[in-house]
Amino acid sequence: MNKITGSFRFAAALLYALGCILLVLIYLQWVEPEKKRHIIQTWAAAFVGLIGMKLTIEGEVYDKPCLIIANHISFVDIFALNAMKPGRFIAKSEIAGWPVFGRIAKGVDTLFIERKNHRSIIAVNEQISAALSKKQTIMLFPEGKTSVGESLLPLKANLIEPAVLSGTPVLPVAICYAENGQKTTKASYANISIFKCLWTICSTPGLSVTLKVLPVIDVVGKTRHEVACEAAAGMSAAMGVPDPMKDYSEVVRHHCDAIGVPSK
Predict the structure, then answer these.
(1) pTM of the model
(2) Which residue from 67, 127, 217, 226 could staple onto 163, CB 3.0 to 4.6 Å apart?
(3) At 224, which CATH number?
(4) Is 48:79 a contact under the CB 8 Å cutoff?
(5) Could you give the residue ranges of the DSSP H alpha helices within 98-211?
(6) Phi/psi of residue 89, each to 5°?
(7) How far apart are CA 161 and CA 149, in angstroms?
(8) Model pLDDT for residues 53-75, shown as the tens digit of each residue
(9) CA–CA distance, 212 with 235 (Å, rounded to integer)
């Protein structure tokens, strides 16, 4: 029965995604920004339901433009976050070449980055700064790679710099997947293709994704590394996993104490 249901969901998801591409090419790029955000939010929430997942949002979603940072487990992360609060994503350049989903990513104004190319990071930071100055919400996955969801990887602070420089609040979100209420790795595409991941999700009953929205971080007077450490502490606690940046935070605090500068 799961295979039959999964087959229908898988086919429906692909047809829905193809329909979204037509929406992007024919209509979405011509509408006003506010209406575009509403369409993306509605479409994203519908996709999560279509593949058989239950979406739950815990915590208060910041209602102003901000930089959203989250852990990265699945391609579903993007849809779930857009269902919560639409924004422009920062994504690895490989996504642009994905069949179907790559075209959708381009259509919703995703900014692509070659993570191993230092010049690319500089260029994307300039685009992030420009977007934040226009009061646009930006979303990124600062771990730098996909995990299976059993831990939080250290957060890379480079792409947080534009928010710090512009005084834009940072909203951390912990993404958690479960199967019948128990933590699962089935939603992850860390070691498999996106279509195999989609099939696993569509054919597994009882899957859910929870977005645990943490208190917004005021970046004023903080460095990008301090913001990253603060976010990692909150995200790891929400996920119930060790803080990967705890040692770094302690090093910073001891250094500040040593030179007589108060740590933030």
Answers:
(1) 0.86
(2) 67
(3) 3.40.1130
(4) yes
(5) 101-107, 118-133, 161-166, 194-202
(6) -90, 150
(7) 26
(8) 999 999 999 999 999 999 999 98
(9) 8
Task: With respect to residue 155, please indicate whether it lies within any of the assigned structural domains.
Answer: yes
83: tokens are: 């269902």
- Give me the chain's average pLDDT, please: 86
Q: Give me 125's structure tokens.
A: 């930071």
In a domain, 263, yes or no: no
Task: Tell me how many domains the chain contains.
Answer: 1
Residue found under tokens 């498999």: 192
Q: Of 217, 220, 223, nearest to 255 (Cα)?
A: 223
In this structure, what is the dihedral angle of CA atoms 102, 107, 108, 114, given to the nearest 10 degrees?
Answer: 50
Q: Please give the full DSSP string across 36-83, using - where no structure is assigned.
A: HHHHHHHHHHHHHHHTT-EEEEESPPP-S--EEEE----THHHHHHHH
- Give 120's contacts (C-beta < 8 A, 6+ positions apart): 93, 113, 114
User: For residue 25, what are the domain limits?
Assistant: 2-257
Residue 94: pLDDT over 90: no
Confirm whether 264 is domain-assigned: no
Residue 207 CB coordination number (10 Å): 21
Distance CA 215, CA 236 (A): 14
Query: Which residues touch 158 (CB under 8 Å, ≥6 apart)?
Result: 121, 125, 224
